[in-house]
Amino acid sequence: MARQLRGNVLVTGSNRGIGLELLRQLAARGGEPTRLYAGCRAPEGAGAEALRDLQTQHPGRISIIKLDMSDEDSISAAVQAVSRQIDAGGLNLLINNAAINQPAAPALLAATGKKDMMDVYETNVVGPFLLAKMFLPLLKRAAEMGSPEEDSEKETMSCRRSAIINLSSTFSSMHKCPETFARAPMYPYRASKAALNMVTRCQSEDFKKHNILVTAIHPGWVRTRMGGAQGVLSTEDSVLAMLDVMTSLGNKDAGMLVDWQGNTIPW
To answer: Which of 29, 40, 207, 209 is the most exposed place for a label (fewest CB within 10 A)?
Structure first.
């Protein structure tokens, strides 16, 4: 049986799709994690109604945090808000799920402009980079407080202790581009996720001295607003599989890109 995730977990982009389902399944897992922090750009808006309902269903378990991943001031304010609420255990798991895709699919070259490229990069790459940087003290605290008895001596890093999971995509893979490009050109999205992979790789090297795991995961082609109705996975199945993968990640997975089944995706 897979080990359970535990401690304090923050999920960005949590008002719908994969982010909301991550919170739903984590909240349903008994007494763990200790507390969930739900990053949402407009917590009081109509688009966050399902998130507010989920918070009501799990009183005391979910804190909704205003967080716009394209705004550095909003990111800083969100980190401060979590810091005021979090316990001495620090932040055990940061899941960077929030992302945008523009222009609308299929995002052909002729329809894509500079603003599209910059907006997508800002949200999908700069946002996760800054959030990880600003949360580093709380992630370090969690790594220092982690209970080594749950891990083997060789596994100094895990999602049960201190980790960052960046949701990436198979569309980020340069190796796989020839087989996936015709279906979805999506220049800004593809380029941003490839850049996020490099951020993942760099931060994994930088943070491993603190025993903080950094890994990227492709959730599969999921039926969401972004993935479209043709997706082959439901949000429930994708998240269930990803959470199982997260519980099994260790030192060997640092800086890697894996899919929802744990298979390594070539760069």
So the answer is: 209
